[in-house]
Amino acid sequence: MNDIRDNIRRVQNEIIRAARRAGRDPAAVRIVAVSKGVPPDGIRKAQAAGLNAFGENRVQEFVKKCREIGGEVEWHFVGHVQRNKVKYLVGLVNLIHSLDRWDLAVELNRWALKKGRVFDTLIQVNVAREPFKHGLYEEEVPDFLPAVAQLPGVRVRGLMTMAPYVEDPEDARPVFRRLRELSRKYRDVADISLEFLSMGMTQDFTVAVEEGANMVRIGTAIFGPRQCQGGGVV
Ligand SMILES: *Cc1c(COP(=O)(O)O)cnc(C)c1O
Known about the structure:
By secondary structure, this protein is α/β, with parallel strands linked by helices.
């Protein structure tokens, strides 16, 4: 836990180097610290080291930490959202990275209107077409965008993807490149500006930054290995 600050500096330095390699401004890259499984104390340490955006992927855990830490940080939701959990997110979450289907958009809109809010979202795209991953296929995006634009309670701010797990992060590069192309291509559909490009995790964030990511979702490289990844507790 004590090395959270060092870890963050390391990640920041790697982002700076990757951005420079690509001729980009490192300040344009936002770190979302994925704090799933991390106790509030770890979040506070990361906050003290300068981070102010945290990502969670389980609703119950998210709500609990939100109550404990409060709204002084930005809360991002990066996991799959079940429709019956939307009511817990409304008013608490700053950005949902995982809008991946129409019925979720409808439910987000319903709760947003009910509470006088707007959900900011990213559309999750399954660029690599992995059968068990969430996300729209890229050919679904052009119809989805104008449809969501009709929902006053949901604002699309950009695109998100998860690259397949690969040994060599270089192999993820085409996926990141493709997401950036899609965000360029659809940037002006239905007056939606796709300003955020959320891609890159511990394994592959430097490649994602080289390919234009302006939000990287990083857990392990900041907080260390999770106790039970994908298990019921974390
Ligand atoms: C857990 C998670 C991350 C962070 O993963 P690390 O490999 O620990 O950096 C990023 N994005 C999503 C959607 C996640 O669920």
